[in-house]
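Aim 2, interim progress: modelling of the magnesium ion-bound target.
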Amino acid sequence: DQARTAKVKTAAFDPKTYDELADNVLLTDELHSALDNEDLMTFYQPKYDYRLGRVTAAEALVRWDHATRGMVSPQRFVLLAEETGFIRDLTLLVLKNTLRDQAYLKSLGFDIAMSVNYSGRLLTDRDYTEQTLAICAQATGKLCLEITETAVIEDPTVGLAAIERFVAAGIEVSLDDFGTGLSSLSYLKMIPAQELKIDRSFIMEMEKGQRERLLVAATINLAHGLGMKVTAEGVEDDTALALLAGMGCDMAQGYGIARPMPIDALEVWLRACEAQPRKYDALTAQ
Ligand code: C2E
Ligand code: MG
Ligand code: MG
Ligand code: MG
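Predicted structure of the complex, ligand included:
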């Protein structure tokens, strides 16, 4: 693996990086037992639908509740899981948890579309695609796979075939963290996705000025022109919520609506929304 070799080379000159590498080996080991010990949990972050004026969807985000390290961020271990192949088991676990929790919410009367993050490199494994499809077939509600731009471009033929299989099965495909990759436009051209998620860095910069806001507005228009709906990530405050409504954004996700939370907290949260409309419930897209 070229990326790994590059990292090892750097480590030879930087003792701090070396420590991190050694720690990664330990983490990888512990990650395997975390799966068995059920220390990997799935949190859910609500997605607000501007047109309907309520939360209709949620994104599943993995959490590692480590015995001595505390909560380890997926930013740290998802990359590690990808490099070691452990991402395969991890993703199936998250997917199964998500389907279980979606069914539970449905039994309570909440029909929530669920998004699961799906590492791009999984798309190039045909057997894994079939395994994923078999699990998704059990879903009691809408499912969406959020894909970041990496491996699809490395092996476009196989990657695209997988995406087409998912779409044909009624599973939505979403382009996650849009705008941060190196070739966003060719990626957009290539992948038949139903949703585009604007990376939170762009949303959080909207307060800076007109230029930043125009970039978000133009991205929304571009996606709409291609028949896609748009979710804004990292919506942290009322200003961003209102700005995005004015731009015709379809969905908003971020701390300004709710933080990722365990399923029992989500249940309580959804009940509270029903009982009492929130400040943003009145905001609809222009
Ligand atoms: P992502 O898919 O872009 O997920 C959104 C991340 O932004 C989450 O971080 C979420 O907690 C955070 N976030 C949400 N709203 C806000 C906000 O208003 N402000 C700020 N500052 N942050 C916000 P998290 O949970 O740490 O996940 C980080 C990344 O790890 C995810 O980015 C995703 O790429 C990856 N990841 C998480 N769970 C999974 C998983 O189950 N499978 C795979 N393959 N990757 C995952
Ligand atoms: Mg995501
Ligand atoms: Mg994202
Ligand atoms: Mg992101």
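The pocket of magnesium ion (ligand 4) is lined by residues 177, 199-200, 233 (CB under 6 Å). Confidence is low (pLDDT under 50) at residues 3-11.
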